[in-house]
Specification:
Length: 420
Amino acid sequence: MYYSIAYETAVIMISGILHTALLKKVLDTFLTTEDRSSLIWKIVFVGYYLMTTAAFIVCHVSIFYGLCNLAGVIGVSFFYRAAWEKKIWISMFFFCMDTGCGVAAVLVCSEEVRMQQSAVQTLFLLICVVVICHIPDPEESRETALDQRQMFLLFVIPLLSVAVFWELMYGSVDRLTAAFLCAAVMTFNLCVFYLYHILLKNYLQLREQDIFKQQTIAYQNQLEVIMESQSRIRALKHDMKNHVLALGGLAKNAEPEKLMAYLDSMQAFMQNPSEHVYTGNEALDSLLNFKLQRAQEELKKVETDIALPEKMKLQSFDFNVIVGNLLDNATAAAVQTDEQFLKLSMRMENGVLFLYMINSCSGIPEGVCDMRRLAEKSAADHGMGLANVRRIVEKYHGDMEMCCKDNRMDTDIMLYLKNL
């Protein structure tokens, strides 16, 4: 008897190690790892292992074990970086498949080998993990989730599936029929998981199309800016003879004040109010002029201090994601305040791009902002925009910090373009 108990406990403990490894594999595949020390990660997964293994030894496959498992999976997932809807969805899906594998193991194993049920459950779960890990999320979508209505529908499916699993286990359905229905429900959940990734892929493609559409509009706006500037140059050139005569007369009569006033009027005529930035880089100029023009139309005060080289190793798509989203968010936040202020500064030094932006804001706690919490308080698109900005910053091995003080949001970004 003691030998049998010791053997069963050893099997459960070994299966628990593999079970925890499978959970880590799923979370690492579909979520982004937080920058934490290896000791913290070891404590998190060892804690999950001890809790679920102890619950299984005491109660085997039961509702109590299921609740402990669900709490542990959700708890571990929140040590990863992603939208909370994405964390809950992945946790619920893993819990659903784990529960289905456990019920299937109970239905398959006879009473004589019931003590090996944890090993059979882990084997079934291994097969499921191998299947789902063949459709991993790309890096750019691991922090992305669908809209809340779609995610709610996805949450309901694994919850209902778990209820079906418990009914099959404790209900009056014969074992063969119950095993068949259990396999069918698990297959259905795998199909839903695959469908989720198709929807997510299409969602990201639509967002990229929207960004390219904005780029097209920005290029069109920049073309109008250039045509307006050329028109002013042609007009000035056409009347240049008269201007030279007027300037010569002022200079001959020793009227320096009138001479300077005349030159200032010529310079003012040359300035295009729609051209806020000119770096010589069409991609940068078009986006900045388009976004800054919109900001100037909505806000009371917009200031710029931009000095960028004509040639930069920053892809126009990435630049659009960073500057476009930040300016959109800053404008949306500033327009809700009385001050309605925005300032954008950009410069390049030794291959490092520095971006500093300050805008008036309200309703945000003072101090360094947690961008995930800030995204949750923002509109859905703004929240997605901040996640995309952070992803691009990490792509260029840069750093980003947002800090609120005296109802003003300071955003500092540094990108190491010299490493590309």
